[in-house]
Amino acid sequence: MVGEYQPWFEKIAGQNAKPHGWQQRLGESPCCENRLIRIPTGFGKTLGVLSAWLFHRVVSNNDTWPRRLIWCLPMRTLVEQTLAEAEAACERAGLLWNGQGSPQGLVGVYPLMGGMDGGQWHLWPDEYAILIGTQDMLLSRALNRGYGAGRARWPMDFGLLSQDALWVMDEVQLMDVGLITSAQLQAFRQQDEKEKTCFRPCRTWWMSATLQPGWLESPDTHAWLPELPSLRIDSSSRTGPLWEVKKPLRLEKEVAQPRMLAAAVAQRHIELGSGTQGPTLVVVNQVDRAVDVYQALRANRSLKNTDIRLVHSRFRPAERKRWREEFLCKQQCQPGTNRIVVATQVVEAGVDFSAALLFTDLAPWASLVQRVGRVARWGGQGEVVVVDTAPQNDGAAAPYTLDELEASRTALTQLADISPISLETFEESASPELVQSLYPYDPDHLLLRHEIDELFDTAPDLSGADVDVSRFIRSGEERDVSVFWAEVPEKGVPSANRHPQRDALCSVPFLRAQEWLCGKQTKTKRAPRLAKRRSAWVWDWLEGTWKEAERQDIYPGQVILVDANLGGYDWNEKTASGTGWNPTAPGPVKIVEGESTLPEDEADASQDNERLSLQAYRTIASHSIDVATLARNTSTRLVPTLQDLFELAGRWHDAGKAHPAFQGSIRADGRPDRQDLAKAPENAWPRAFLYQSLQGDRRPGLRHEMASALALFAVLKEHEPLHPALLGPWKKLLEQLGTQQQADKTASKPPTELEKRVLALDADSFNLLAYLVCCHHGKVRLSFHVSPSDQKAQAQGGPLTIRGIRTGDRLADCLQGQPCDQAWLLDLSPSTVGLNPTTGMSWTERALGLLEDYGPFALAWLEALMRAADQRASRKITKDPLLKGESLP
């Protein structure tokens, strides 16, 4: 192992680079365990971690290492930089998957930053993947409430991020409450590994130049936190050019105002030769202040030949793409670069940038260390000027506190140089009290075990509302919504086919977005709706349409569509400059078009969507065999003890599509004359007939997967009512309660081969089978509840209807692929609370029993395996052998 890692590192790093000592130690450690990594800026944290995972998991095929590397970063700009580095490293090693066909042992690299273009990573749970995203996108998914994702996708992402995954929490000093949330999640996963049925490991590495173990302390982490291995560079190894860097420090108090700061920056930039030694970097604490400094610099005539750039978090990815090529990269930081970059915290970490001169606002110590790391990054000397704005209260100090700034002020007065060796020496000799004041961490919220268990349920209330998890991800005004602009007809509404793309989404603080769109609100003057001449919409999951936004709809994680004519974004395409989100900027805003939306994303975005059924005509039997084959192959690799159950689930999952209301939805010239179709071309689904039988019986909101699950109960009821999964365990109890049991066999024919396999299951296996079948679209999971469509039908005098299904519905057995006059009689008894004399335990009790046995992480992961098989099979375009003479559309 020792001899193998170094040549591997040289290959992946390129340019004959040798690993640092800490990279070597990490790469040669065969065990993947939770760990702390505290390495100074500039010493290759990204490449060190990436190379270690690739070496052990991919190259050495060490199955104790997780298949997915989840790289969690605090800001979008860091995602783009890390994504580029990961793709380049994988390509140098010949391991990068191009997204065509199947990965077959290669590595897919995917960004997760919101929008409906997050890639295909969820389709390949048994392949290697690197997911790189912000804490907002990743932690919300780890909490089963994925920002920017369709509700039905939440449990799938949750499962895949909670099993067979190595989380890298990078630049944790910027993560706020998200840091302790990551520690709590890991504690709960480890608890489940010990106490429940888990299948694949999930580990976390916490990484930063200023990492403090105490940041992870909680009652749930207390037992194992002291034992975590910690990777650092010890004093005896601090040799070489990066430890010889000089960074003289100067404190300034007289240039706090933006114009004065801009003047001081311009003067010193010119005195140093206008970039003779490299570019100048200005880092301030607020976006508005950055804009003011940037505009003042652009107005300074002495800088007419200087390239002046603005960097903050309120730009769209479409505009940010240029940054890395044009100025935020090593090639654009060389001596002779006459450039000034004005930025906020977004450049504190993960940016391959080096300045000869840094002006920075006074900030918390951890932030200052990161900012100073952008100076003389690759050796030599740089100058650091810290500007003390002397705020008088926490409001003026925002987003920081006066105490944090005072601690940094105290430390800076003791330093004349702020290079890596000076910082390490200072902290090692500082008093414990000073160190503690420099690294405070007191998050407002702590995720508890019962909360993650409760978040497993993704069903909305009747209004579509949900638990707000934003308090576990970020705090204060830094919690964002994602805004994108689109052309909308005057007095019209956006098309339901208009979905956000990643490059079009702009992060906006949710409170400022509320004020921008709805106006100011006070205790005496309410503003619950959009202000005059404001046009904005949010997605309605229940109706599958865009609805007019209200103030209550503008909350962290929400995606908001804004009429392009309203304005709100400043960007000049000709000059490639602007200030990003700006509520006063006039319209129209240029539209950012993206790639077409994946069918899985569209299907997950609303309750009633048959996007995955739009395909060449294919029978239920043929599609089910496709799914069963993929489900068996995947489970054989990942959870071989359940491979038979997964195959059976694949065979059974779409039995409910034989429901007359589903078959009646498919109407077109040339439609095969049969009632067992699982797929049909897009033109065969007229909206007016969706979920309406040929006899005219309409069942809006029909969920065929629930019908499939109820058919399993019908098999037991008809052939073996005293089966252990039905009434068997409750026979005596029901007799004592005086309840008449329906325990007589009602089947007129012997069971089919598939039914025999169902009957042969024990109770636990039956419940898991039924659950995998029912949740394979993520829309019906823990409970059978009426939908608004059901309520409307009942209000008009109709019988009890749940998800378009009624007791007494007959479901033809179409799983054999040939005409069959046998049908299952569906019964809604499992929807009741408690025991019932027809099917025994309720559906919810069965699902909660599985949750108790497997825990939320493993159970959601099993869901994801099943869904991935179905979605991959749904992409298959081949002739159905059961449809002779039918042509592909």
Written description of the protein model:
- Helix 20 (643-652) crosses helix 25.
- 34% of the residues lie in helices and 12% in strands.
- It is α/β, with parallel strands linked by helices and 889 residues long.
- The chain has a 7-stranded parallel β-sheet with strand order 3-4-2-5-6-1-7, with helices on both faces. Strands 8-13-12-9-11-10 form a 6-stranded parallel β-sheet, with helices on both faces. The chain has a 5-stranded mixed β-sheet with strand order 15-14-18-16-17.
- It folds into 4 domains: 2-232, 3-Layer(aba) Sandwich (Rossmann fold); 241-438, P-loop containing nucleotide triphosphate hydrolases (Rossmann fold), CATH 3.40.50.300; 479-592, no CATH class; 613-874, no CATH class.
- The model has no long low-confidence stretch (mean pLDDT 91).
